[in-house]
Write a structure and sequence with these properties.
Blueprint lengths: L1 E5 L5 H10 L3 E6 L2 E5 L2 H10 L5 E4 L9 H10 L11 E5 L2 H13 L27 E5 L4 H6 L6 E5 H6 L9 E2 L5 H9 L3 H6 L9 E5 L1
Parallel strand pairs: 5-6, 5-7
Antiparallel strand pairs: 1-3, 1-4, 2-3, 7-9, 8-9
Length: about 220
């Protein structure tokens, strides 16, 4: 299994030394993270003993994606039922615009079913879910979602706004899925969430990278 230990930029050397000291295999420094390989117990050891890693993430799949369509097609092919435990909690933001976007992302990935006419323009809430497919979808205050995910049981996933994901040390490549935010409304919602500092950091990125699904 391949793992990534995320960290603030500049901490990669120290984190790599720490993971090597823990006896983890194939430790490799990257920007804002360090990769290593092993079994589940090795990921758990890193979770327990690393003092520098923000999160320990496991790679669940790899596929070629040279454009947005290939990215969405690849994520839809992932066997989510083998990753998410039955009855797993899915955390989403509870403000109207972002709750709608979060639920549309979950529906996009086949994790829930929404009414056929569900759209960003009409808006949806958890009350509109037609079939949660055994998941417990919980609306939470947007800025608390990363912390809630970090303190959740294994198998929990969360939809996190891009600005809060960046502040929590998460990266686009950590995401299990990314929203299809090609419309003007989605882009406006995404940008309205961000401070000037975050917008500068996101300069030139597609709005589709701003709302993402992360796993513990």
């Amino acid at each position: 299994m391949e793992f990534f230990a995320s960290c603030p930029t500049g901490f990669e050397d120290a984190l790599a030394d720490e993971l090597n000291a823990l006896g983890l295999a194939q430790v490799r420094k990257l920007k804002g993270r360090v990769s290593f390989t092993g079994q589940v117990i090795d990921g758990e050891r890193a979770c327990l003993w690393s003092r520098l890693a923000s999160r320990i993430l496991v790679v669940i799949d790899r596929f070629d994606a040279r454009d947005a369509d290939a990215l969405y097609a690849g994520t839809r092919e992932i066997a989510w039922e083998e990753i998410l435990a039955e009855g797993a909690t899915i955390a989403v933001t509870n403000d109207p615009a972002n709750e709608t976007r979060a639920l549309l992302l979950l529906a996009q990935e086949g994790l829930i079913e929404l009414p056929a006419d569900a759209s960003a323009e009409k808006g949806v809430t958890t009350l509109d879910i037609v079939d949660a497919k055994g998941h417990d979808v919980q609306p939470l205050q947007a800025d608390t979602v990363p912390a809630q995910l970090a303190n959740s049981n294994p198998g929990t996933v969360a939809v996190i706004n891009g600005n809060y994901a960046l502040q929590a040390g998460l990266h686009a490549s950590d995401a299990l899925a990314i929203e299809d935010a090609s419309g003007d409304a989605a882009q406006t919602y995404a940008k309205s969430d961000c401070s000037d500092e975050i917008l500068e950091r996101l300069e030139g990125r597609q709005s589709a990278e701003l709302l993402k699904l992360y796993s513990l």
